[in-house]
């Protein structure tokens, strides 16, 4: 169903059973997969590649021009997976270079007034609360929840299965399975409730907690904490996720107390 009151560029490619409501705007060089629904006053902008069964609510803009002076008007892209929801007035910028681009996985729920900057990666099954601001070149791991009004600064990496409480400002990297809270943001524990609800065992949760006792509470450097985790934590899924993440960000992680910094 395509309303005659919507604008759909002739070059846009639409899949089967796509619903375009009145006053929606579908730009040229756009692909929208099967079963998507674009509500009134939503815009899908040039360079967007959208998968199946996405729903874009009123006033949202997907694939907006990047807000970065390095972008000089060249063709860039925004890639959206399947089964995502973008609530009212969400803005997702596309990338600033022809290669790469902004990428959102599957089953992501983005609540009203949130903004996702250029070249960011939002992995699958994540939730962004109301008015979350994700700057450019960030990575948000799968199954992560950013509560309302969280700010993630440019270039930060947030691991999988993380919960960031409302209003936090993330200025560095957040390792997996953690809860972050307060301002300045600090480690608040392991994300046990969500992990248990999604099938992690109590033993795995204990192993995650053990990892972060070494990182945040042992009084040693991050380098030595890694060595202790490798020697002390038995579960390979938990151990490898934590160790590989910290190594991938060159040991720069958020919320180490000052006296524990390397």
Description:
With 262 residues, this protein is of the alpha/beta class. The protein is built from four helices and 27 strands. Strands 3-6-9-12-15-18-21-24-26-27 form a ten-stranded mixed sheet. Strands 1-4-7-10-13-16-19-22-25 form a nine-stranded parallel sheet, with no helix packed on it. Strand 26 and strand 27 form a beta hairpin. Mean pLDDT is 95; it is low at 255-262.
Widest beta sheet: strand line-up? 3-6-9-12-15-18-21-24-26-27
- Report on the biggest sheet: 10 strands, mixed
Detail the poorly predicted runs. 255-262
Helix content: 10-25%
Tell me the span between the first and last alpha carbons: 59 Å
What radius of gyration results from the CA coordinates? 20 Å
Shape verdict: elongated
Q: How many distinct helices?
A: 4
User: Which structural class best describes the helix and strand composition?
Assistant: alpha/beta
Task: Please summarize what this structure is.
This protein is an alpha/beta fold. Helix content is 17%, strand content 25%.
Please name the defining characteristics of this protein.
alpha/beta; nine-stranded parallel sheet; 4 helices; disordered C terminus; 262 residues; elongated; 27 strands; 25% strand; ten-stranded mixed sheet
Which helices and strands appear, and what pairs or packs with what?
Elements lengths: L6 E2 L4 E2 L4 E2 L4 E2 L4 E2 L4 E2 L4 E2 L3 E3 L4 E2 L4 E4 L13 E3 L4 E2 L4 E3 L8 E3 L4 E2 L4 E2 L4 E2 L4 E2 L4 E2 L4 E2 L4 E2 L4 E2 L4 E2 L4 E2 L4 E2 L7 E4 L4 E5 L1 H6 L4 H15 L5 H11 L3 H13 L14
């Amino acid at each position: 169903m395509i309303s005659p009151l919507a604008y759909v560029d002739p070059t846009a490619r639409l899949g089967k059973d796509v619903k375009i409501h009145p006053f929606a705007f579908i730009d040229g060089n756009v692909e929208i997969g099967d079963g998507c629904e674009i509500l009134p006053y939503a815009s899908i902008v040039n360079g967007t590649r959208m998968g199946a069964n996405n729903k874009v609510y009123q006033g949202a803009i997907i694939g907006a021009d990047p807000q970065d002076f390095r972008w000089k008007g060249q063709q860039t892209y925004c890639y959206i997976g399947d089964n995502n929801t973008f609530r009212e007035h969400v803005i997702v910028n596309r990338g600033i270079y022809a290669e790469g681009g902004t990428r959102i996985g599957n089953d992501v729920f983005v609540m009203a007034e949130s903004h996702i900057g250029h070249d960011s990666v939002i992995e699958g099954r994540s939730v962004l609360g109301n008015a979350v601001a994700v700057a450019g070149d960030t990575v948000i791991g799968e199954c992560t929840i950013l509560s309302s009004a969280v700010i993630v600064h440019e270039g930060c990496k947030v691991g999988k299965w993380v919960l960031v409480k409302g209003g936090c400002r993330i200025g560095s990297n957040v390792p997996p399975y953690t809860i972050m809270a307060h301002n300045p943001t600090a480690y608040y524990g392991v994300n046990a409730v969500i992990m248990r609800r999604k099938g992690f065992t109590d033993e795995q949760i204990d192993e995650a907690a053990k990892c972060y006792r070494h990182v945040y509470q042992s009084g040693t450097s991050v380098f030595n904490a890694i060595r202790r985790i490798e020697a002390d934590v038995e579960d390979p899924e938990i151990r490898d996720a934590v160790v590989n993440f910290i190594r991938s960000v060159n040991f720069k992680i958020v919320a180490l107390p000052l006296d524990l910094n390397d």
